[in-house]
DNA sequence: CTGAAAACTGCATGCTCTGCAAAATTTCAC
DNA sequence: GTGAAATTTTGCAGAGCATGCAGTTTTCAG
């Protein structure tokens, strides 16, 4: 907040945000990011096409900028938590804390979710970012627990946890049912803690 | 084998396989798929560049052709199994059965794994195919159990199972330790069945 | 053998993304 | 303020990807 961010850096951040916002707006307006070109985005944000590509390698990356920021913050938080918590708890609490202050615009998240869902290129981009998240998180966990990044167990734990966050969030987004996102995430984690072999209800 | 496949279809299949193989060979030879062009692949397989793009939308898809075939077969198997097994068991057994006949060239899998690991574009492509697999599997499960594709529980189960397959396979590939891949997969599933909160060894 | 269906090919096109070097802008020291 | 240095923006050129289209060649069935 009160950080001594120079004017230069603030302008850069503003430009980046503007480009991301322009991408989002155009993608919605034109019914899919496939119908939007880098030229249009740049024009909409008032910079040259070349500058757009200085900030983002692709329009998909521009659209998912916020998502990327969120996961980065989650990683920072996780780095702290693993010092004092078991991995599983650390991830769960980090994810919950991330969404506790309701600074997120649900309707916007829904729009983004739909855009992603309907575009193969966006699914790929997001999945790719997820894998990067996974890879970095594995490093953090290995560091904190003194295990190797190649060990099976931490990878299983992390993978399940990330799937849980993503799945639960999507499910909640489709139908909030009155509860909050943190509550939904907590429930998802609880399901996995219980062991997933047996369904909770049906006897199939 | 003795299927009444017309000559035409066999030639098509051969061309597709040749293109995929050429992609793999060139990617290894040139140290990354980023250093290979569609032109080179087509030339290596003896067809025009345009024809290459008739078979595959991208070189990444060409390289992952086998992977795609394998997951398709897994889905077919899963479709049968969910009729008589709980979802979790069905996925586990399908994955295990898939790899039981050791028709897979481990060294080749390792090479492919490394190629993927080092290329963002391949990570994205594979992740995208994984999401497609997930989406289709969800449909199968929902059909078989009479649940909705939007329900949380089957999504969590499926997600965890797929992560388990992928993670375990990668881990095993890095270090087989004498046991077979089916054994490794079974172990991964067993870990998750136990519930993942508590590590098996360390008391962290 | 022949006509119909399917596959292969070249060409043109539009878009993506990167490198490079010149021009414009911001920062900083004085 | 002013000028030099650092940084950012920009245009241009170029390689490559991916798709539509139309003509040619190959394959298949009867």
Key descriptive features of the protein:
homodimer, 204 residues, mainly alpha, Arc Repressor Mutant, subunit A, Tetracycline Repressor, domain 2, 2 domains, 10 helices, disordered C terminus, DNA-binding
Description:
- The structure is a homodimer of 204-residue chains.
- Chain A is an all-alpha fold and 204 residues long.
- Chain A folds into two domains: 7-59, Arc Repressor Mutant, subunit A, CATH 1.10.10; 64-193, Tetracycline Repressor, domain 2 (Orthogonal Bundle).
- Helix content of chain A is 72%, strand content 0%.
- In chain A, helix 1 packs across helix 2 (38-45).
- The N and C termini of chain A lie far apart (53 Å).
- Mean pLDDT of chain A is 90; it is low at 200-204.
- The interface between A and B is large, with 47 and 47 residues.
- Chain A binds a DNA duplex (30 and 30 nucleotides) through residues 6-8, 11-12, 37-39, 47-51, 53-54, 57-59.
- Chains A, B: Residues 13-74 form the HTH tetR-type domain.
**Helical fraction of chain A:** over 70%
Shape of chain A: globular
Helix count from the secondary structure assignment of chain A? 10
The first-level CATH class of the largest domain in chain A is given as: Mainly Alpha
- The SS-based structural class of chain A is mainly alpha
The total strand number of chain A stands at: 0
Biggest sheet of chain A: strands, sense, closure?
A: none
Order of secondary-structure elements of chain A:
HHHHHHHHHH
The whole-angstrom Rg of chain A is 19 Å
Count of spatially separate domains of chain A? 2
How far apart the termini of chain A lie comes to: 53 Å
User: Largest interface, with Cβ-Cβ < 8 Å?
Assistant: A-B, 47 and 47 residues
Assembly state (oligomeric)? homodimer
The overall pLDDT average of chain A reads 90
Low-pLDDT stretches of chain A: 200-204
CATH topology grouping of the largest domain in chain A: Tetracycline Repressor, domain 2
- Supply the CATH architecture of the largest domain in chain A: Orthogonal Bundle
Strand content of chain A: under 5%
CATH superfamily of the largest domain in chain A: Tetracycline Repressor, domain 2
Keywords (chains A, B): DNA-binding, Transcription, Transcription regulation
DNA-binding region (chains A, B): 37-56
InterPro entries (chains A, B): DNA-bd_HTH_TetR-type_CS, Homeodomain-like_sf, HTH-type_TetR-like_transc_reg, HTH_TetR, MftR_C
Domain HTH tetR-type (chains A, B): 13-74
């Amino acid at each position: 907040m009160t950080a001594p961010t120079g004017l230069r850096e603030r302008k850069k951040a503003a430009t980046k945000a503007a480009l991301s916002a322009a991408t989002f707006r155009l993608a919605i307006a034109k019914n899919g990011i496939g119908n939007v070109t880098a030229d249009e985005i740049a024009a909409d944000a008032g910079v040259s096409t070349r500058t757009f590509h200085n900030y983002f390698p692709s329009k998909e990356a521009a659209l998912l900028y916020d998502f990327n920021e969120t996961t980065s913050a989650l990683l920072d938080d996780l780095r702290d938590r693993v010092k004092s918590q078991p991995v599983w708890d650390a991830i769960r609490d980090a994810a919950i804390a991330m969404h506790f202050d309701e600074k997120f615009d649900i309707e916007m998240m829904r729009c983004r979710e739909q855009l992603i869902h309907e575009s193969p290129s966006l699914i790929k981009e997001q999945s790719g970012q997820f894998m990067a998240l996974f890879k970095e998180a594995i490093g953090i966990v290995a560091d904190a627990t003194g295990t190797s990044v190649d060990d099976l167990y931490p990878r299983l734990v992390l993978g399940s946890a990330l799937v849980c966050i993503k799945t639960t969030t999507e499910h909640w987004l489709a139908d909030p049912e009155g509860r909050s996102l943190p509550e939904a995430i907590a429930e998802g984690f609880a399901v996995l803690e219980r062991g997933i072999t047996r369904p909770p209800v049906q006897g199939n």
